Each structure stands twice: as C-alpha cells, then as structure tokens.
Fold each of these.
Amino acid sequence: MKDIYQRLDEIIPKITDADFRKNKGLGNEIGFYIFDYNSEYELLVRDRVNFIKDKVKAAYGLNIVEFDLYEIILEILESKGYLQKNFQMEEKRGSEQVFNATKKALRLTLDNDLVVQYIEERLDGGDIVFLTGIGKAWPIIRSHTILNNLHRVVEKQPLVMFFPGTYDGGSLMLFNYLKDDNYYRAFQLIDKI
C-alpha cells in the first residue's frame, strides 16, 4: 500500500503525460479523475497542490486552473451582497436555514448554476483543471453533484478532484464517513496499491 507521500509524488508524472492531457485511453469517457486521501492530510495536500501547479508551469509550461469550491461560494455570495446576510441568518435561524438559502442563491443543479457558470467562464487557457475545497464546501455542494454538473462545461481539459475521503470507483465517502450518491464516471488518479 502506497503512503500519501508516494501517491502525491506520482501526480506530476501522471498529469504531464501527453496522453493524460488528451484524455486518451479512456474509452470515450470524460477525463475526470479523483485523488482521494484521508482528511487528516488536508493541509499537506493543499500545500502539494500549490507546489504541483508551480512546478508544472515552470518545468512543463502547463497551466493548471484551480477551483476551490468554498472560495467560489464565498466570492459569489459576496458579489451578490448575500454573505453578511448569511451570517445574520445563521445567528437567528441556524445553519440548516443558511445551507438551504445558499443552495438556492447559488442555483445549484439548475441550468443557470452559478458555480458551474463561474468555472466555465474561467476555463480558457487551462490545460488541466484542479477541483479543491470539497470538504470545506460540504454540505452546500456535494461532490457527485458538482461532477455531474461540470460534465457539460469541462470537456477539453482533464479534471482532477482532490477528495478528502474515499473513492472506490463507484461511490464517494467524504471524510471516510459520509456516503455520497454513487458516481461511476471518474477514474482514480493515483492507485493506492
């Protein structure tokens, strides 16, 4: 069994391979990958993601576009004038009300989903897409939902979702505790064995 350091070290050779960037060998499937890890390594993975982006740009001239779901939520709410209102609502009505109101404000899963639009508008010039902030954005955004909704906008670039939990090729378990709906369309980026 590979440890987290070995698996992280295999990311750069994998993503810089020309076949990976062209989504070759996937049997007409979309180029969505998941790098799963135990949530105790969250800070290590965050640091390594930044290192990988810098290294791949400097050594290979590839542009990795990172989308942190949590940061996207905050930016959208702030731009709409909802962020302070959310804080006030949480004080008065509790977290559940804020989660539901935020989902509605973001139009999640609708044709005009603001998170999907945000990502779509910022894809140009990206060779590879990194999706981070999965754990921070829960329970507002669920991992299988965002992947399903990104199928229509991320088509040319491979997408790597950094997932704090377990992906077994069919189901996602956030924090190795919260089972999400099944998701069968992504590939494991780096094997654990």
Amino acid sequence: MTASHKDPLVAAYFAVDFQNGVKGAFRECTGLGSESKIVEYKATDERGRPVLIREPGTMAYTDIVLKRGITDTMDMWQWRRQVEEGDIDAARRSGTITLYNQKGEAVARWTFDRAWPSKLNGPTYDAKSNEVAVEELTITHEGYKRVQ
C-alpha cells in the first residue's frame, strides 16, 4: 500500500434537504448519475474507407430515488401534491444530498438544480412481516454536481 491509498467511503445514511421541503435521513439513495446519448454517423476517411463516428449527444440525468421508513412527517406528500395540483413552478427546488459515515461525518455531498417529485409510492403493508414500512420518492432534476 502506498501513502496515497484511501479506503472507499462507507455509507451509514443519507441526509436530504430540498429548499424548505423534504428533509431527513434516508436508508437508500439511487440514481446519482448521468449519461450522454450517443450520436453515430457514417463517414469516409482520407483513403475513402467507410468509418463509423460516435460522438456524445444530449446529456441526460438519471432520476434520484430515495427510500425511508414511513413516519408521521408529511413533507414528501406535500411536495408531491404541488405537482399533482399543477403548480410545478412552486414545486421546483434546489437541494443537497449528503452521505454520512458511521461517525456522523459528512463524507460526500451532491447538489441538485430545479428538482421536483415525479413519483411517490407509499409503503406496502404485510401484517405478517416484521419490517419497517418504507416510502419511496422519485426526484427528477435538471442537473447535479458532486461538491464534496
């Protein structure tokens, strides 16, 4: 091992804050990513041979999916209600998702622009189960950055 070796970050929990909206700790966060659509076109090289050119096209951000145990907090439901009632301008918010380690120290952070809740699922109930009921929020956004 060299002196520059760093261990991978261990995720204990995620905290979310979307401009006076959804706040709290989540047990699962997926979709922190982006992709470029691929544009392909055929051309010929200087010797007249056919070649396939592949270049990046439109950038697309993946939706973020957050899961947490359901509580009496109505923040996600109230935020989603704004979209359901057609008030998308009021629903759009910037926000932050922070990853914490087991010591409660922030080890990674992402910021998002113009995010809004595109889907909200309540928990599935099973009276025979001894599991925490989980609610799931899907957030659509127009860009993100990892800032820590």
Amino acid sequence: MTHSASDGPIKAQRPAGAGLDWEDEVAEPPFKVLTREEAQALRVRQGELLSPWRLVALQAVVGGVIALVWWLATGSGGKAGSALCGAAAVVMPNALMAWGMARVLGTAPSAAVLGFMFWELIKIMLAVAILAAAAKWMPDLSWPALLVALIGCLKVNWLALLWRGRKKRDGH
C-alpha cells in the first residue's frame, strides 16, 4: 500500500511490546500532604524501622559468635582472629557509613543521595583495605574462617529485612 499526500499525515506505529519513549507522558500519582494524625497512623501501620546502629551491633555480635565458635571448634587463636578480621571488614565500614549518613540525612535530597554514594564508596574502600591488611600482616590467616565470618555478618542485613517483613505481615 502506498501513501499519498492526500491520505493525511503518517503516524508512527509503535511495535507491540516496545518500551516508553522519553516523550511519552507517564501519569504520576497525586501527592498528598498528610496531617499529623495520618502520619502517625502510617508509622504505626508500617512498624518501627530497624536502627542502623542496632544492625551494626547485631553484625558485631554475630561476628563475635562466629569467632568464638571457630576458637572453640579448633582451639586456634589464629582462626578466631581471622574470623574477627572478616567480621571487622563488615562491621567497621557499616558503622562508619551509619555515622556518615546520620550527618547527611537532614540535608536536601540531592545532597543525601550524593552523601549516600560518597559513604558507600568509603565503606567499600575500607572493607577492601581491611581485607588487604589482614592478608598482608596475618601470617596464619585462615581464609575459610575469615570468609565465614564475613558472609555471616553480611547475612544479618537479609535476616533483619526478613524479620521486619515477617513482623509486619503478622501484625506485631
């Protein structure tokens, strides 16, 4: 089929399953300002947020327990020390990030996003530095002990999220 000028303008047809173009308008839900009572009711419905400091403390406890288990199971202080290094590679950077983000959160949203990216970068660099220092200066480093503690401390984040979701679902 050919198109002539008398047929009218040609309209581009979007293939089925094509994504949105930049020019497409997406309807945003209306923004509603909550009253004080509505905000308090929303907080009650959503439940308490887990404090970053509690999460860091829980990671430290888990790391200490894992190091204690390594020490009791092997009788080796080197393996317990390796486990403590693995825990420190998670706990210390997270504590630093929690401290830094507490200072940034009261600022403008764009500053908070930049602050988050900055502190996340610092957190990663500190974790890598702790692991590198342990590899260099611990002659009896046990990588399995270090990795078990590191992974155990990292899993605390997921367990806290699961616990919070379960609490919310149960209505407690």
